[in-house]
Amino acid sequence: MDHEADRFAPAWKKIRYIEKRVKKLPGLKGARFSYYPKSGEGTGYHTIGLHVIMDGKSVEEINRLMEKLREGDPEVWLRNWGQSNDFIINAINLKPGDEKIIVERFEKVFG
């Protein structure tokens, strides 16, 4: 398997699609965005993702927002350890079209 072509490149394409659409949402105003890994290429710890840091939110608020994202069908799960005001949208295992589901859910929660 050519991991770069078959897994990494499609995942980065999905992350950039998600980033372009969610950055504009009112509920994410003031959030800081970066890539994981920061280089914007390859993979890090089985993650190709968009790191979202919400400085104005408490840990409890972030946990409630993540619960809202999981309430739909299908559930949207983010990488977070429940003790910080940030999360990562990990695209390494997304199937085609999953990025659109994530954007739709973000629009409902943060729109």
In words, what does this structure look like?
The protein contains three helices and three strands. With 111 residues, it is α+β, with helices and mostly antiparallel strands. Strands 1-2-3 form a three-stranded antiparallel sheet. Helix 1 (3-22) packs parallel to helix 3 (98-110). The longest helix is centred in the first third of the chain and has 20 residues, at 3-22. The termini are far apart.
Calculate Rg over CA atoms.
Answer: 13 Å
Estimated structural class: alpha+beta
Roughly what fraction of the amino acids lie in strands? 5-15%
Biggest sheet architecture: 3 strands, antiparallel
Q: What average pLDDT do the residues reach?
A: 93
Judging from the principal axes of the Cα atoms, what is the shape?
globular
Helical content class: 40-55%
User: How many β-strand runs?
Assistant: 3
Q: Point out poorly predicted stretches.
A: none
Instruction: Write the H/E string, N to C.
Output: HEEHEH
Tally of separate helices: 3
Distance between the termini: 39 Å
Spatial order of the strands forming the largest sheet: 1-2-3
Structure characteristics:
111 residues, alpha+beta, three-stranded antiparallel β-sheet, 3 helices, 41% helix, globular
Detail the topology: elements first, then pairings.
Layout: H1 3-22, E1 32-36, E2 49-53, H2 59-70, E3 86-90, H3 98-110
Antiparallel strand pairs: 1-2, 2-3
